[in-house]
Amino acid sequence: MLKHSRTLLSSLPDLTARLFGRAVDLSAQKQPRSPVRLEDFLSIPVAEHGRDEADCARLRAHGQFLARQERWQDLSDAIRAADATRETTEGGTPVADLLAFGARSDVVLAVEEALQDSHRTDQAPLIDGIRALEFVRQDHPDDPYIALIVALTHIDLAWAWRGTGWDTIVPRLNREKCAAHFDRAIEILSPWCGVKMDSPILQAACCALLAGRRTSQRRVADCYEALIDLDRHNSRHMRALGNHLLPRWFGSYAELELEARRTAARTQDIWGAGGYTWVYLDAIAQDEEACARVDVDFFIDGLRDIARARPEQETINLLAAYCTVTLRGNIGLHEEADLNRMQICDAADWLIRDHLTEVHPMIWAHASEGFDNNMRVSSPSRFAARGRADALQIIASLFRDEIRNGNRVVFTPEGPQLHGA
User: Fold this and answer.
1) CA-to-CA distance for 340 and 279, rounded, in angstroms?
2) Rounded to the nearest 10 degrees, what angle do helices 253-266 and 274-286 cross at?
3) For the chain, which residues make up each domain, given as ranges?
């Protein structure tokens, strides 16, 4: 599967076999030849450190710095301002989210590391950080954004205790700790309403709290509908809605389809049919039955509209990697889902040929992991190298006919061009 591709097309026999469909016997060649390099037939800019990645890292670091310096009022004011203006990075990540994440990152990381250490005896890392944040909240009782940071920390700690396994394999103690953190987060945020305050980040937190509540399906859809209406340019909310409407969480396949269509209708002026696609994007990558039921034509129309609405390379790389890497990961598990997957995967051809101008390795690397936001990356450089290898291999494969005919494919700001050998 493409999901498990890990190496560049660098060796001559493997390279020619993939691109030209035949094996090559080097010993039969009378004259030694220089090794064939990827650059000999494919040239595309690689954004090893994309501007958006740098902006996200800088904003997270700024939130972390303000928290470490105990400049809580400055942090609150910065989050409030970014939330009010819906400020985002070039790739569409809300600035308020990044600041809030940085502010709680030290506490969350300490707990995650402590929980991973099976030989731990010191319980201090599990309680000291969140206790300190609770004291900060007490010092700012009327500040919703300080409360938000503390509540989001509790949510993160709940998931750290819970993990991603099935309920049946999660130890009882871990389930109880998870529930306790969710209960505390619900209590902290109860005085504030994201809708009344016109605050996407507060409403997003309310949606995140749904995982700790026993609630009706309609409540889930309503909560996310309010969030999406507050920030209709943010695709992340639509993706989260689709994920949480899967039967494994709070919804059903019928409600997933209904809400995808309703979201598309409400956001049509911005995304065209893209709202439908965003809602289904993660759902069909995770759930075979959802993939078997999706309206493929509607989904592909949405891909085209998203590419028109957000032509920046972060989005194009995400869509192309999704079609070529993420969706192919589960092929072979469900016949009807496979038919739909392959039709959607075919969209990679026009996405890459018509819209791609550079490769963003980290996006492709995350695609191979299903865009798992909770995944820990031990070596970012190796992780990015893996994404670069996947991307170049897939792009070269897409242009194999042109390459077989002796052309060199060169990507320009206007798209790929063919240079005869």
Assistant:
1) 16
2) 150
3) 71-214
